[in-house]
């Protein structure tokens, strides 16, 4: 019975193996992935363990931006900040409520 | 103390804490070791005193009772020495407690939602990459191991899931834990983390994983019939490999 190739299973070797060359668009995507950062801490909610208010606040700040500038692309940053910390079941529910007109927060109409 | 753990899951005949993988857990482990030594010394000392008092001064061994009734000096000594020991213990304890509350700027947010009876995870950072609109989502059900072919052995009973959450090492992470229906609790002993998942609440904890590995945990708040069957599996990869993993996922989508 041949001995198994132990070297192939050594995690150190697997994880430090050099990665193959990437195409230009792959490299661009990789750079984009490396540059992404999450929603920064908000000093108004810094000490709290419960960040539900932070999430609600970010979502409504995006709506305030939409209401004042009416520019969807310009307010995309604010929407991303909100979506990064809000669970999708919450943000999807609020999106639906806004469509139906029963959203309890900032009204953009 | 000899402890043998494999893959940061509970091990057979494990008598002590699991191997640490985060700074918090390392702190807890070191503090626990020092405390355990001090406690052993105190217990042995008190035990010896008790034995000495009973054995040598029992009526059978000691016919003459003492005329020694009280002593102010002795009372001062045996009050102030325990107080001093407690003060000495409190210093590393408070240091650790406040270090756990350290404010750090997170680079990645992992949203964890407890359902009856599985965990679902979301990473939404990469939504804006290449016009993606979907968050990275994992829904992790426990893997049922009965009926697996004999070639697929070696899994941990009641701990394996169909998907494993991938996280980077040496990165400040923010975990936001909530629940979709009833109370759950998300825990990984190797990270020294246990967070309650309350519906309507988004509990935040910071995490900094120091090494690669596969870490297991289980739901820690009674949530119905299958409370014992909703495990958690985290795989931590070096940052470079994590970026490549995300890139592959985005390309596939």
Automatic annotation (TrEMBL), chain A:
Compartments it resides in: Mitochondrion
Keyword tags: Disulfide bond, Mitochondrion
Keyword Magnesium listed: no
Gene3D superfamilies: Cytochrome c oxidase, subunit VIb
Protein name, UniProt field: Cytochrome c oxidase subunit
UniProt superkingdom: Eukaryota
Pfam families given in the database record: COX6B
InterPro entries (UniProt xref): COX6B-like (IPR048280), CX6/COA6-like_sf (IPR036549), Cyt_c_oxidase_su6B (IPR003213)
Gene Ontology cellular component list: mitochondrion; respiratory chain complex IV
Automatic annotation (TrEMBL), chain B:
Cofactor note: Binds a copper A center.
Record has Kinase as a keyword: no
This protein's UniProt keywords: Copper, Electron transport, Membrane, Metal-binding, Mitochondrion, Mitochondrion inner membrane, Respiratory chain, Translocase, Transmembrane, Transmembrane helix, Transport
GO biological process: ATP synthesis coupled electron transport
One MF annotation (Gene Ontology) recorded for this entry: cytochrome-c oxidase activity
Record family assignment: Belongs to the cytochrome c oxidase subunit 2 family.
Protein name: Cytochrome c oxidase subunit 2
Taxonomic classification: Eukaryota, Sar, Stramenopiles, Ochrophyta, Bacillariophyta
């Amino acid at each position: 019975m041949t001995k198994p190739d132990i070297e192939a299973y050594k995690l150190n070797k697997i994880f430090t193996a050099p990665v193959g060359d990437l195409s230009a668009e792959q490299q661009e995507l990789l750079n984009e992935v490396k540059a992404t950062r999450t929603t920064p801490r908000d000093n108004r909610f810094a000490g709290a363990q419960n960040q539900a208010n932070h999430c609600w606040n970010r979502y409504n700040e995006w709506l305030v931006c939409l209401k004042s500038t009416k520019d969807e692309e310009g307010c995309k940053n604010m929407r991303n900040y909100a979506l990064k910390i809000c669970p999708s079941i919450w943000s999807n529910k609020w999106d639906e409520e806004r469509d139906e007109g029963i959203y309890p927060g900032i009204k953009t109409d | 103390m000899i402890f043998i753990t494999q893959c940061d899951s509970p091990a057979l005949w494990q008598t002590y804490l699991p191997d640490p993988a985060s700074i918090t857990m390392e702190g807890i482990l070191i503090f626990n070791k020092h405390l355990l030594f001090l406690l052993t010394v105190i217990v042995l000392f008190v035990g010896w005193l008790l034995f000495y008092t009973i054995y040598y001064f029992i009526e059978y061994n000691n016919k003459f009772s003492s005329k020694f009734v009280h002593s102010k000096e002795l009372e001062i000594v045996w009050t102030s020495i325990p107080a001093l020991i407690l003060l000495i213990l409190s210093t590393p304890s408070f240091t650790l407690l406040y270090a756990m509350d350290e404010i750090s700027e997170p680079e990645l947010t992992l949203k964890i939602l407890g359902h009856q009876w599985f965990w679902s995870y979301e990473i939404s950072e990469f939504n804006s990459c290449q016009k993606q609109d979907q968050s990275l989502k994992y829904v992790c059900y426990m893997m049922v191991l009965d009926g697996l072919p004999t070639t697929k052995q070696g899994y941990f009973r009641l701990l394996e899931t169909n998907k494993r959450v991938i996280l980077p090492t040496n990165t400040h992470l923010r975990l936001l834990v909530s629940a979709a229906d009833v109370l759950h609790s998300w825990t990984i002993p190797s990270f020294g983390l246990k967070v309650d998942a309350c519906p309507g609440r988004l509990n935040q904890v910071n995490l900094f994983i120091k090494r690669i590995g596969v870490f297991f945990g289980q739901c820690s708040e009674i949530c119905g019939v299958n409370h014992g069957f909703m495990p958690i599996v985290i795989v931590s990869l070096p940052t470079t490999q994590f970026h490549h993993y995300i890139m592959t996922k985005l390309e596939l989508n």
